[in-house]
From TrEMBL:
<keyword id="KW-0762">Sugar transport</keyword>
<keyword id="KW-0997">Cell inner membrane</keyword>
<keyword id="KW-0472">Membrane</keyword>
<dbReference type="Pfam" id="PF02653">
    <property type="entry name" value="BPD_transp_2"/>
</dbReference>
<keyword id="KW-1133">Transmembrane helix</keyword>
<feature type="transmembrane region" description="Helical">
    <location>
        <begin position="240"/>
        <end position="258"/>
    </location>
</feature>
<feature type="transmembrane region" description="Helical">
    <location>
        <begin position="198"/>
        <end position="219"/>
    </location>
</feature>
<feature type="transmembrane region" description="Helical">
    <location>
        <begin position="48"/>
        <end position="68"/>
    </location>
</feature>
<dbReference type="GO" id="GO:0005886">
    <property type="term" value="C:plasma membrane"/>
</dbReference>
<protein>
    <recommendedName>
        <fullName>Xylose transport system permease protein XylH</fullName>
    </recommendedName>
</protein>
<comment type="function">
    <text>Part of the binding-protein-dependent transport system for D-xylose. Probably responsible for the translocation of the substrate across the membrane.</text>
</comment>
<keyword id="KW-0813">Transport</keyword>
<feature type="transmembrane region" description="Helical">
    <location>
        <begin position="310"/>
        <end position="334"/>
    </location>
</feature>
<feature type="transmembrane region" description="Helical">
    <location>
        <begin position="107"/>
        <end position="124"/>
    </location>
</feature>
<keyword id="KW-1003">Cell membrane</keyword>
<feature type="transmembrane region" description="Helical">
    <location>
        <begin position="346"/>
        <end position="364"/>
    </location>
</feature>
<keyword id="KW-0812">Transmembrane</keyword>
């Protein structure tokens, strides 16, 4: 029997019902011990971030470097930094699509089509190379918009739309190239120069590294100031400085290695600048937040007033545009556009790069830096096996196994997050 003065059951709050304290606040209060505890908590809850792919790069470089010293030579690493650009550019577009939990199977054909458009318009028909470049980029964006329309407005599954597009755009590429089948791109062409130009002055690489580190520091400080003003958890200055030192060490080490061979490749610089810009769009703009919202919970996004069809169409437009950019870099790499452009294992590599880099196949989680990290993994595996003289058949099997491992990690991570109530 309840006695007078006993608290009502409704006033009792179970321990598990108490509002959880933001873990980041605990981290700030406990210092190093708090950071270690936060790291263990993230591992248990499946919030792995870029850790698996960073570990993979270290293992790959260690294995191939021990098997053949040429792998870690300045020349090979410099060549690798150029070779991953074309694949990485296309993978950026794939990241946008994956953030919605969808897939684009047409990017290989679109990249080949846009390379063929540039080559035919500029080399065969004599169009100004800048105008031909713009037409090729606009063509990629238009293709993506068309596919996005059928997906967002008509309701055709993205898998079906882009699978059909993969066949259709490949056929159009063959039609554009005509009977010759191959169009050679001159070395003085803007497309060839974008890939092959290298800044030989050592200052170029170090200045680029310094600017990048400075922007990272400034962005981190401004973000901390903004969060402090909003009275939400923020990174202390000491942590920001430590993170900047780590990023700076990596950036200047990369600059040093590049300078040991020829210098800073323009293609790599363009790729990094694009990643910074696109990352800002996704993380700091209203549009980027809407992309994550649609990918995380489409019904919730609709109720919040987000134009879901527009976001879907825009994402596929970005995918088509980035496929065009990547296709032009790939054409500049081999200085030609042919019937095999955009074919082979290109589609598999760009999807693998995005997924291996840490972008979830289930949507709502990922970063454009996944394109860089994933491309680095794929490129490192291919470069190392080429140096070792491994056949293409074995390379395909190993790359496929790495992709499967990445998907398994993604699935296990998502399951752990659900168990921890974070997904």
């Amino acid at each position: 029997m309840k006695r007078a003065g006993d608290p009502d059951d409704r006033d009792r709050v179970a321990p598990e019902a108490m509002p959880a304290v933001d873990s980041r606040l605990i981290v700030r209060e406990e210092g190093l011990r708090g950071y270690l505890g936060e790291f263990r908590r993230k591992l248990r809850s499946g919030e792995l971030g870029s850790l698996p792919v960073v570990v993979a790069v270290i293992i790959i470089w260690t294995v191939f470097g021990s098997l053949n010293s040429a792998f870690l030579s300045a020349q090979n690493l410099s060549d690798l930094s150029q070779q991953i650009v074309g694949t990485g550019m296309i993978a950026v577009g794939i990241v946008f699509v994956l953030l919605l939990g969808e897939i684009d199977l047409s990017v290989g054909s679109v990249s080949g089509l846009c390379a063929a458009l540039f080559a035919v318009l500029n080399v065969i028909n004599g169009m100004n190379q800048w105008l031909a470049l713009l037409v090729a980029l606009a063509g990629g964006a238009a293709v993506g918009l068309i596919q996005g329309f059928f997906f967002a407005k008509v309701g055709v599954p993205a898998f079906v739309v882009t699978l059909a597009g993969n066949l259709a755009w490949n056929g159009l590429m063959l039609q554009v190239l005509g009977s010759s089948g191959t169009v050679n791109i001159p070395s003085e062409s803007i497309v060839s120069k974008l890939y092959s130009t290298i800044f030989h002055s050592p200052a170029a690489a170090y200045v680029a590294a310094g600017v990048g580190v400075g922007l990272f520091l400034l962005s981190s400080l401004l973000d901390a100031k903004r969060r402090r003003s909003a009275r939400v958890p923020f990174r202390p200055v000491a942590e920001i400085v430590l993170r900047t030192v780590v990023i700076g060490a990596i950036a200047f080490a990369a600059a040093y290695i590049l300078n040991q061979y020829q210098g800073l490749p323009l293609a790599l610089l363009v790729f990094l600048i694009l990643l910074v810009v696109v990352d800002f769009v996704l993380r700091r703009t209203r549009y980027g937040r809407q992309v994550f919202a649609v990918g995380g919970n489409i019904e919730g996004a609709r109720r919040a007033g987000i134009g879901v069809p527009f976001i879907r169409m825009s994402v596929f437009t970005v995918s088509g545009l980035m496929a065009a950019v990547g296709g032009l870099f790939l054409a500049g790499q081999i200085q030609s556009a042919s019937q095999t452009s955009g074919g082979g294992n290109l589609l598999m590599n760009v999807i693998a790069a995005a997924v291996i880099g840490g972008t979830s196949l289930f949507g709502g989680r990922g970063s454009v830096w996944s394109a860089l990290l994933g491309s680095l993994v794929i490129g490192s595996i291919q470069s190392g096996m080429n140096i070792m003289g491994v056949s293409n058949a074995v390379q395909f099997m190993i790359t496929g196994s790495v992709l499967l491992a990445a998907v398994v990690v993604d699935s296990l991570s998502r399951r752990s997050q659900k168990a921890a109530g974070r997904a």
